Amino acid sequence: MIKDVIASARKIVVKIGSNTLADQDGRVNTTFLEEFASQVASLLKNGKQLVLVSSGAQVAGLSTMGKWARKQDIHYKQALCAVGQVELMSAWKRAFALSGRHIAQILLTREDFGDGLRSLNMRNTLFTLVDEGVVPIINENDSVSVEEIKIGDNDTLAARSAILWSADILILFSDIDGLFDKNPKEDDSARLITEVSDIESARKIISIGGNSVFGTGGIATKLDAAELCLAFSIPMILAHGGRARALTALTEGSQQGTLFIV
Ligand code: GLU
Predict the structure, then answer these.
(1) Nearest CA to ligand 1 atom 5
(2) Distance from Cα 37 to the centre of ligand 1, integer Å
(3) What atom of ligand 1 comes closest to residue 85's alpha carbon?
(4) How far is the CA of 188 from the centre of ligand 1 (A)?
(5) Is the CB–ligand 1 distance for residue 142 below 6 Å?
(6) Residue 117: which CATH number?
């Protein structure tokens, strides 16, 4: 089913979480980025269009700066993201260059999505970049988004971006294989739920382990993202981004995940 939904989709938004693109030491995993870029390149060659939502600014900032004297206040985090975003995009640029693709950076805030004119400009920019064969890479503009006004997690950002661009599908890559009926890290009998159409009942039946180490969202933000997408009839897939060539594997039907679809 996932395979069929991807096959019939032309405009694809893929979100990669910090945990997926960082290695165990919290550094940007360049091998992962290169492999991912080559999978994107072959999808593009096959006529698909793709927008990427990439987390990882904070992780990249931390690994670049090492220990900072500052505490974990919001200004510290914003400064770290300002440093890390450069590292992150340099890594993506190198990775996509190997596949002969240009990338573009788009940093957005919650306010941007609430403003009609800004939204229109964002949408036009996305359309133009994609038409030119460039891979747009979206992140939250963390250094200007204080706690009260930020989107806060890239699952929601990815859903909003998918809606803005009128995507045909959103794929959220995380460090779990999808939605389970129990916590798979604690319970061997946990069963993967392969298809969900009712988010409210999914919220009731699932129980899942704590949030991953680097990412902001847990399963709750993934369900929120699915709810946003389904309201616009955009199917969403939640899958493990760390599996071998996960994007291609989903496309070919050799990897499982959870499909949210109305
Ligand atoms: N924008 C944050 C970053 O790049 C990540 C938010 C998230 O992981 O959901 O570090």
Answers:
(1) 55
(2) 20
(3) 4
(4) 30
(5) yes
(6) 3.40.1160.10
Q: Is 61 in the pocket of ligand 1 (CB under 6 A)?
A: no
By DSSP bridging, strand 236-240 and strand 258-260 are antiparallel
Please tell me the distance between residue 142's alpha carbon and the centre of ligand 1 in angstroms.
8
The whole-model pTM stands at: 0.94
**What token pair was written down for 179?**
């939605």
Q: Alpha-carbon distance 191 to 42, whole Å?
A: 32
Cα 159 from Cα 53, distance rounded (Å): 10
Interatomic CA distance for residues 78 and 84, integer angstroms: 10
pLDDT in tens, 47-97: 999 999 999 999 999 999 987 776 678 888 899 999 999 999 999 999 999
Q: Please tell me if the CB atom of residue 158 comes closer than 6 angstroms to any atom of ligand 1.
A: no
Structurally, how many domains does the chain consist of? Answer: 1
What pLDDT is stored for residue 213 in this prediction? 40
Domain interval for residue 117: 2-260
Whole-angstrom distance, CA of residue 93 vs CA of residue 85: 12
Q: Is 73 exposed, middle or buried (0-12, 13-18, 19+ CB in 10 A)?
A: exposed
| 139 Cβ below 6 A of ligand 1 | yes
